[in-house]
Structure formats: C-alpha cells, structure tokens
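Can you make up a protein sequence with its backbone structure tokens?

===
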Amino acid sequence: MYSIAFDSDLIKGVELIDIDLLNPHEKIIERKKTSLAKFIKSYDSYYIISSIVCCHKSLLIVDGHHRYFALKELGFNKAPVTLIDYQSNSIRTGSTNPLDKKYIVDIGKSSDLLEPKSTEHAVYCNNSKSWEPIILLSSMFKINTKEIT
C-alpha cells in the first residue's frame, strides 16, 4: 500500500536487479553514502531498505543514488528496484528549473554525472493534487546483511 494516490500504470514492476545494470545520473555526497553503508553493515542478519526508483526502459536511477552506491560498496550484486514509467507526465524532474528527462537519461548512459541533488524528482498525487517526493513510490525490501564482506 502506498501513502499517495497515483496512476496505476506508473509502476511497471518491483524486483531485484543486477546492480551493474543500473544507471546513476548524479554524483553523491560521499559522507552520506559512507554513513548509510556503515549503518546497513551494523545489522547482524538483515536490513529493511527502500527500493531504488528506476526508469523501466533505461534503468536510470531516478531516486536512490546513495542507496545504490552504498549497496555497491558493500558488495551486493543485486539491488531492490521499483521500475516506473519515467516518461509519464505524473513524474517531474524539478519544481523551479526542471531538466529535460531525455537529457537526464543521456547523462545516466554517460560517465559525466550531474552534481548531487541536481534533480528534484516528484510524483503527482491524485488525492492531494500536489507533487510529492518520488521516494513514496518505493517498496520496502529485506536485504541479507550476512552477505556483506
């Protein structure tokens, strides 16, 4: 159950995906990633994590760059992902100076990442008639911390 109302065809799937197939488009704040990785590693057997939100076609990371880089650092081969229709008009890239989605996807396919927090992805809530943080489309996953080396 999600805490917002959105178009039902926005979510294309929820699954574990090979982490090396995902495409980040932003750099991260290193200390934030390091703190998250240490926090996850501190759990003895499992940790509950929000899935990474990705475009279902390009596997562009829309939300969850720090989670992605923390899981990679910890040696996870697969990442929990919520796949979305990124081209939907119900997804925006920013409130004041939104970037073009095609441009963001192209950045994700390159090695030239944008600065941290360059985009402010949001999803339109049909009930409140307002834009909400896109992480609300995430699903919760249980990851096995015993696999961390």
About this structure: The chain has a mean pLDDT of 94.
